[in-house]
Write a structure and sequence with these properties.
The protein has about 270 residues and is mainly α. It has 10 helices and no strands. Helix 3 runs parallel beside helix 6, helix 3 runs antiparallel to helix 9 and helix 6 runs parallel beside helix 10.
């Protein structure tokens, strides 16, 4: 990877970020939507306690909800964002033009990854600001908690980004992208413990969600933002951080393989 290539990737990342910010729909539904959901659901469930009576410290549903929204924000900027915007670019012939230029192909993906990383960081900062300001959520108090927060977020974002690039080949056209991707994201959010406490979901739903990264991101983040004693309320009786790392790592590898073999630069109309 040459110095010139890195400069190109940084420039491409800057272009991607400016395009995202200037597209009002992307800005609202990808970056601000999780914040709006946190404000609405957090206010509704602010006084609903989900720890058993007598167990201290008590955890409110809004506290539980915050960890799910941070994980959802990571999924929105990685998976949803790329799985919707890449088919639009493919439909408009943007990818075809990129491929015909002397620019190395990896620069296009490097720009996308840099843009997604910046957006995810912005999303996390916004969500934490709202959580601390309105719901009394305490930030991680120890270096170990910050380290766990960092690796769960990085592994989760990497898995979601690679899966978003790979899944971009499923939509037949740019117009069909949101219709294909949005229902999948909603199903994963409802089954992974984002809106409802995971341990109260039906067993089959828990088994389904355990196949995908969002459930494990939520679980890893709960270990950071909820009391250690709350681990007893998890299905396995602990936060299973080793398993969280293993599953997210497996999705990173699987997503990369799917990208290498499934990414398409052109539409079926282009041949």
């Amino acid at each position: 990877m040459s110095e010139n290539g890195l400069s190109l990737a940084l420039a491409q990342g800057g272009i991607e970020f400016k395009q995202f910010v200037r597209t009002r729909e992307s800005l609202v539904f990808t970056l601000l939507f999780p914040v709006m959901l946190m404000l609405i659901f957090g206010s509704i469930f602010k006084n609903t306690v989900i720890t058993p009576e007598g167990v201290s410290p008590a955890v409110t549903l809004s506290q539980y909800f915050v960890t799910g929204m941070i994980a959802s924000g990571i999924m929105a900027t990685g998976f949803q964002n790329l799985a919707i915007t890449i088919p639009i670019e493919r439909d408009r012939g943007v990818l075809k033009r990129y491929r015909s230029t002397p620019m190395p192909k990896w620069v296009y993906f490097g720009g996308k990854i840099l843009c997604v990383a910046a957006l995810a960081l912005l999303s996390i900062v916004l969500l934490l600001t709202v959580a601390v300001a309105f719901y009394d959520i305490s930030l991680p108090a120890t270096g170990q908690q910050w380290f766990t927060f960092a690796w769960v977020s990085v592994l989760g974002l990497t898995a979601c980004t690679l899966c978003g690039i790979a899944f971009s080949g499923v939509a037949k056209s740019g117009r069909s992208g949101p219709a294909v991707v949005t229902p999948i994201a909603l199903i994963l959010q409802f089954t992974s413990g984002v809106f409802i406490q995971y341990s109260s979901l039906p067993h089959w739903m828990q088994q389904f969600a355990a196949l995908f990264p969002l459930k494990w991101m939520c679980q890893g983040l709960r270990s950071v933002f909820l009391p250690a004693d709350f681990a007893a309320q998890e299905v396995a009786g602990s936060y299973e951080l080793g398993k969280v790392a293993l599953v997210l790592g497996a999705w990173c590898v699987g997503g990369l393989v799917l990208c290498l073999f499934g990414f398409r630069w052109t539409t079926s109309r282009d041949g």
